[in-house]
Design goal:
312 residues, alpha+beta, Jelly Rolls, Arc Repressor Mutant, subunit A, 2 domains, 9-stranded antiparallel beta sheet
Length: 312
């Protein structure tokens, strides 16, 4: 693990890297902040993941910049600015004054810059995410898009859990962090469905907007029975055409994909000892614990209780 704690050891001209170990893929440059003395920051990294906490008092003027091979997710815990601007390459800048409880997501390789004349004390939590870790097993070409100062309580909750796990630096939290990363990969901003986009498929599979429409709907209705007719309707395809295109895109039929996503969510819930296996089964829409156990074992090769022992 690598940890840095201090007051302003970076400035805009510096690129600082944390050695997270030879076996870890992510060695990310941190956000450059100017002037360096105006902010307190604390950085912790473990298992290819890194998080940072930033604090700037009221009355300061600061600039933040980032452009690296890692995704950047900023969680503005509190703060407001009398003046300032947040900019990501390719997007219109935002001059929103009160950014408490907002999120900003910067995909890898995009230039990010913002400046603040801080009017109330500012606290920001930052996650640096290795793109290789966010590749979905069933969708290696997942696309993430930049967004500035937006609200998403679901994404916030997942990101906060991941930040906490990294900071606690517990070896037994590794399976939990892996599960959180997979959930995060489905919750990060992706291309919105374009209502004017023609319902054509790409290379025999679904177009990007169709994949986003379907996966988003599945994530919001994991605990429910989802009809094939509804999914086909979202993509504006016939059921037969949709099934062929979906399997081409994801490598699984729609029903199996739904089950796969349920089991991924189950892994996350099993990490919390407060949730009984029976409760988790009900939360995910299984009427009987035995049916949930069979589905879990079929997908993972282990029973839910056996999987839970990793977190004991």
């Amino acid at each position: 693990m690598a940890t840095y704690s201090g007051r302003g050891s970076f400035d805009q001209s510096q690129v600082r890297q944390f050695d997270l170990g030879a076996d870890i893929a992510l060695v990310a440059a941190t956000v450059a902040i100017s002037p360096s003395h105006a902010i307190k920051r604390h950085c912790t990294g473990r298992n290819g993941l890194m998080t940072e906490s930033l604090f700037a008092p009221a009355g300061t003027r600061i600039e933040l910049r980032f452009n690296a091979a890692a995704h950047l997710l900023l969680m503005y815990d509190e703060g407001a600015r009398g003046d300032g601007e947040t900019h990501i390459e390719g997007l219109h800048p935002s001059k929103l004054r009160n950014f408490a409880d907002k999120l900003t997501f910067v995909p890898a390789g995009r230039a990010y810059h913002e400046w603040h004349e801080v009017s109330t004390s500012m606290r920001v939590s930052v996650l640096y995410l290795d793109p290789a870790r966010l590749r979905r097993p069933l969708d290696a070409d997942a696309i993430f898009v930049p967004r500035i100062l937006f609200e998403d309580p679901v994404l916030w909750k997942t990101a906060a859990k991941l930040k906490s796990i990294i900071e606690r630096n517990q070896a037994r939290g590794i399976p939990y962090s892996e599960a959180l990363v997979q959930v995060l990969s489905h919750e990060l901003p992706q291309p919105d469905q374009d209502p004017d986009h023609p319902p054509a498929v790409s290379r025999g599979g679904l177009a990007t907007w169709q994949m986003c429409a379907v996966t988003g709907y599945v994530e919001r209705h994991l605990s429910e029975q989802i009809s094939l007719a509804k999914l086909a309707e979202l993509t504006r395809l016939s059921e037969q055409h949709f099934c062929r295109a979906f399997k081409k895109s994801f490598g699984l039929p729609p029903h199996q994909y739904h089950v796969h996503r349920r089991i991924e969510r189950a892994k996350l819930l099993l990490a919390d000892q407060a949730n009984s296996v029976t409760d988790i089964a009900l939360m995910l829409g299984y009427s009987q614990t035995s049916a949930f156990s069979v589905a879990f074992r079929k997908t993972t090769g282990r029973s839910p209780r056996d999987f839970r022992r990793d977190f004991a």
